[in-house]
From TrEMBL:
GO terms assigned for molecular function: rRNA (uridine-2'-O-)-methyltransferase activity
Function statement: Specifically methylates the uridine in position 2552 of 23S rRNA at the 2'-O position of the ribose in the fully assembled 50S ribosomal subunit.
Enzyme Commission numbers on file: 2.1.1.166
UniProt subcellular location: Cytoplasm
Gene name per UniProt: rlmE
Protein name (database record): Ribosomal RNA large subunit methyltransferase E
Enzyme class: transferase
Amino acid sequence: MTKPPIGGNRTGRKLGQKVKKGKLKASSRRWIERHINDPYVQRAQLEGYRARAAFKLLEIDEKHKILTGAKRIIDLGAAPGSWSQIAAKVTSSTDTDPRVVAIDFLDVDPLPGVVILKLDFLDPSAPDALMDALGGTPDLVLSDMAAPTTGHRQTDHIRTMHLCEVAAHFAIDVLGPGGHFLAKTFQGGTERELLNLLKQNFRQVLHIKPASSRAESVEMFLLAKDFKGRREGISDHADLRAEGQDFRDEREDVTEHDEE
């Protein structure tokens, strides 16, 4: 069972620490203070996960069992790698028999049992590169991708939803029957067209806000369970990738995936 931090602290570190003003901007100081006082950050350090995002996946799995029985997993937008850590463990993936492939345009430090591709998922070569590296059909496609924020909530929502949509088409292209798809999205309404697509191809579609996702964060997760199997007539998603060219270059400025 995935338990929340007890009393907000399992590392012995005192919560409520302050950062000296110094030369830091107020916004940067607030982010650092929130980070060092976050019980999930502390628990991730204690348990050896690279980021607090690990507990979002573990919480979702605790209720929905999407990791159970998974033999091969693809992790989109993997940096810094906490979801891939979990994926490697549940699939018993090793360097000699890798069953997890992760992709990100940011650097990801090596992980045992994980093939890491430094490549933008919107690159046209990404789908084939992922499948070639995996060497088989995935049971689960994970996506923690998010577009760089602009400060304009509606724009940020649209851009991240585009990534979610491209990831969904990829999942439909590659998953085996009974497989699952989990992707980050933002509150503000999932586009009806995407929901309809997922409902046509999966037996259950849910929006989830795990407890480890900060209350003030607008992030949510879209879970599509039990893939029905590849059907004829599903359109190719190359056009969606082309639409993403406008902000591919801007994503190079992103240095932190797991701020939420």
